[in-house]
Specification:
Elements: H1 2-22, H2 24-61, H3 65-100
Helix pairs in contact: 2-3
């Protein structure tokens, strides 16, 4: 049991030492990469959700009343998800640039 604690303590010390060496620059780099991925992915995902919402709505119109109502709810949920995605796409780069400083942060060159 003491060997297990010794290995755990050694791993913890090594982890802390390596984390202290990297500093805030890796955090900025990680957030910048995340922002770049969001800017790339969210418009495509939003467009797919809008198309899926249209397909669900159209398919629901051919069904009975109960299924039509469910399809309308699902289509509305898809549209809401697409709008939230586009809102995040529009706001996230500016918010992250404000938090991390505009001259130290870039998100696909937008900020």
């Amino acid at each position: 049991m003491k060997k297990l604690w010794a290995i755990f303590a050694l791993a913890l010390v090594i982890g802390i030492a390596s984390a202290a060496d990297t500093g805030i620059t890796n955090v900025r780099s990680a957030i910048s990469n995340l922002c770049n991925q969001l800017v790339t992915l969210l418009p495509v995902a939003a467009m797919l959700m809008i198309v899926i919402a249209g397909v669900i709505y159209a398919a629901g119109q051919m069904m009975g009343a109960e299924t039509r109502a469910r399809a309308n709810v699902w289509a509305t949920a898809c549209l809401t998800g697409a709008l939230v995605g586009l809102l995040i796409y529009a706001i996230a780069p500016a918010v992250l640039a404000t938090i991390y400083g505009a001259n130290n942060f870039s998100c696909n060159g937008t900020v």
